């Protein structure tokens, strides 16, 4: 006989009672995995072409810019970087500072990476803030053994009519543009490489192209929000192209990471700039 009564209902399973919290926790874990183990190794390759309009550019010149490697040796990210360089075959490789993983980093680990990097017109390096915070003894000998050309407030003619200017870091060094640009003939196409992009304010209108890094593109980004923190020497610059007084500058997001070993919505980058006649 049906009395119209229902059997008592027990408490819902714990996972059902905490469904919202579990979803939030799962999303946080997924984002953490992406930021720590996925995105830092998804190196983005960007290509740009500049029609130089200079007598110095007779044939195309393909430049690879590496910045902020912050390397601890030949790891997963470094091997991907080397594979990209091998596939792209740039004419010259310019490293705009901060190869060390930290101010007291291991130069021997850097050497493992440097020995694998080659280009027909050479590999050129300028100081970042890490290299200035803990200067290395016998520095120039080290870079010679690594087959890397160190430019500190110096210049070099890459090709007839195309000059490279390497400047010390603005944040913790002493960039000296007048000394670095001495003897460059009038009408040459000039490429200045330095670490901290804020230095553009000092040399805009004096060179054709600048390459910088340092900002990491913010490294950790949230949609529609300006990065919470940028290192001293970034100024108003974040990533990509800028132009002042006819001087163009590209700020790379860099390959490595600094302070915290994560990237979020800010992939590492290797940029290739081709100068066309």
Radius of gyration: 24 Å
Q: Look at the structure and give the mean pLDDT.
A: 91
Q: How much strand content do the residues show?
A: 15-25%
The counted number of beta strands is 12
- Shape label: elongated
Q: Could you give the order of the helices and strands?
A: HHEEHEHEHHEEEHEHEEEE
The amount of helix comes to 10-25%
Number of helices: 8
**Which regions have little confidence, pLDDT < 50, spanning 5+ residues?**
none
The major sheet is characterized as: 6 strands, mixed
Strands in their spatial order, largest beta sheet: 1-12-2-3-4-5
How is this structure best described in words?
The chain is of the alpha/beta class. It is built from 8 helices and 12 strands. A hairpin with a 2-residue loop joins strand 6 (154-159) and strand 7 (162-166). The longest helix has 20 residues, at 19-38. It is elongated.
């Amino acid at each position: 006989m049906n009395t119209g009564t229902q059997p008592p209902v027990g408490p819902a399973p714990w996972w059902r009672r905490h469904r919202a919290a579990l979803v939030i926790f799962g999303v946080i874990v997924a984002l953490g995995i992406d930021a720590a183990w996925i995105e830092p190794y998804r190196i983005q390759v960007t290509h740009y072409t500049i029609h130089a309009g200079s007598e110095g550019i007779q044939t195309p010149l393909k430049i690879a810019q590496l910045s902020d490697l912050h390397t601890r040796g030949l790891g997963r990210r470094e091997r991907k970087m080397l594979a990209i360089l091998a596939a792209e075959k740039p004419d010259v490789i310019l490293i705009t500072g901060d190869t060390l993983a930290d101010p007291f980093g291991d130069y021997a680990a850097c050497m493992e990476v440097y020995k694998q990097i080659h280009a027909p017109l050479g590999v050129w390096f300028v100081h970042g803030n890490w290299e200035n915070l803990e200067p290395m003894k016998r520095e120039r000998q080290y870079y010679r053994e690594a087959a890397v050309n160190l430019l500190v407030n110096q210049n070099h003619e890459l090709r007839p009519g195309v000059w490279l200017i390497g400047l010390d870091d603005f944040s913790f060094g002493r960039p000296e543009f007048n000394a670095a640009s001495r003897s460059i003939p009038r009408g040459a196409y000039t490429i200045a490489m330095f670490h901290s992009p804020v230095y553009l304010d000092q040399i805009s209108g004096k060179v054709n192209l600048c390459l910088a890094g340092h900002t990491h593109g913010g490294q950790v980004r949230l949609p529609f929000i300006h990065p919470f923190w940028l290192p001293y020497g970034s100024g108003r610059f974040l990533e990509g192209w800028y132009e002042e007084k006819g001087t163009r500058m590209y700020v790379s997001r860099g390959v490595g990471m600094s302070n915290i070993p994560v990237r979020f919505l800010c992939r590492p980058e290797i940029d290739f700039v081709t100068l066309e006649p």
